[in-house]
Amino acid sequence: MGIINTNPVAKTSVDNGLSEKGKKQTVKAALKLKAMGACDDGCWIWPSITQRAYQAAEVIAAVNGISRSYIVPEYSFLDARGLGGYEGRSLEVVSEVYASDTVSPRNKPPPIDDGTPSESVEDVFVRVTQLMSILETQYSGETVIIVSPDSDNLTVLQAGLVGLDLRRHHELSFEPGEVRFVDINSIPAYKQPASAVYKCLNPPSCT
């Protein structure tokens, strides 16, 4: 409908399900995953509990021959980014959100009193980092397909993985139904901060 809808209260509503266009995009995505061999050796599918994301996960599982028992719904870490006062407005105003993001990852959309959160890029980064911590702990070495109800979860996650300034996350924007493989080789090696390398022997006088 071209309307911003990020209030988590409505995420399981049937009105938040896939449109006919969305169903076609999902089938294409599922077939692309099959062509990539994503689930040839088995895979886990982690969708947001949002209706459209969970429906997409079911299609992906069916096309790739994966049992529904391997679909693990995520109840909060994959919620669509809360856009606060932009709720209910045209998708065209998202450009204003991204313009604000480029100034600071701490900038939040204007608040609203209907329960829709106003999340900054940093807020989203905290959520997706927590998600990755769970996946690394429980599914190390496994293939995991993340199905998000919006682009920002994925762009912020990818920006964090590849070391891109979070203020530029929107440059990685996903199209509806887009499949993207993040190659582990594109993730730079972790560098310890100076505080972890150098020890102060005579605090507070340190050199």
From TrEMBL:
Pfam families: His_Phos_1 (PF00300). InterPro entries: His_Pase_superF_clade-1, His_PPase_superfam. Residues 100-119 are annotated as: Disordered. It comes from the Eukaryota. This is Phosphoglycerate mutase.
